[in-house]
Amino acid sequence: MKRLVALVSLMGLALGLLPAANAGTSQGGVSSDNVEWIQHIPFEVGTATGAKVIGKYLYVTSWKAFSIYDVSDPLNPQRLSTTPFGFKFENEDVATNGSILLFSESVPQNILHVWDVEDKTNPTEIATLSGGAGHTTECILNCAYAYDSNGQIVDLHKPTAPKVVGNWGKGMPAEGGHDVNEVAPGLVLTSSRPLMLLDARKDPVHPKLLAVGDDKRITGGIHSNRWPNAAQDKIVLFSSESNFTGRCTGANGAFMTWDASDYKRTHQFHLMDTWQFENGTYTDGKPAVNAMGCSAHWFQERPSFHNGGIVALGSYDHGTRFMDVSPKGKIKEVGFFEAYGGETSAAYWLTNDIVYSVDYSRGIDVLKFKD
Q: How many beta carbons lie within 10 A of that of residue 54, not counting itself?
């Protein structure tokens, strides 16, 4: 860990000393000319791993705490509370409906923590469920249930008394994955091999398999997914992860587009395009070496995305990248923000212009994307 911290610091120093060619510099880092760094928000306790926006509130988790912000003014978020709880790994994908928040502790123990977050200034833990957590956990049907990455299904109708009631991977082509995502009420897309679309609308304890997708061109482990416009879009977005690779090679993680236009008839998703990272010279917004790896991590499509558009992508050493997805699923990078000494976990759109970059090392950077 000390070596990792030292390498990240060295990378930040190099970014600060070298003049920028083909990129602009700011107090926050190096960026393309269409990305403006607005401000940095330190994360008070621990490392920021993931976030979710519900209404005017932003929920940010880490290995040691979670914080709630009022983001009514996205350029000036106001912290309402920070709740420390000791080391609990890792809860990357925040699961909340604004009333309860789930923290999935996979290491050192396998425990699902349920928090009451109705009072944003004073969250309280109301239940724990031993053996009820995976690496990630997702709220299903407004947090009436939870699906975790190990396949477990937890009944949350009574949040103070959660209980395991089933396994969504039983009898499926994939028994688990890195993440599950409720892309529309009761429709669950799994980040697994193969990719799976599950229907939990009628019977959440025994979901039905609707479609699958796989392709030998996929590299790295399937990490996360998004299906824009509540699963109505023709394009599905996936990322794959490859950790602790010093250099980017053809076998590393990628950002991907999949064709979902005919899945109801074929029950298949088909790979459209992949985009992989490259190393560079720092001054071009690309790291010369990787500390955490060459990976597409957590990402989110722009609110205006419709069968194509812009995606903001967190990518560890490569910072926040902005991808243009064409109506045919072709991917092209159109912008970037490379933070000084950063290890970017995720990127979230607050508006069509404002993006929050969540970083393991830094906290939150507020960015403005300019067309």
A: 15
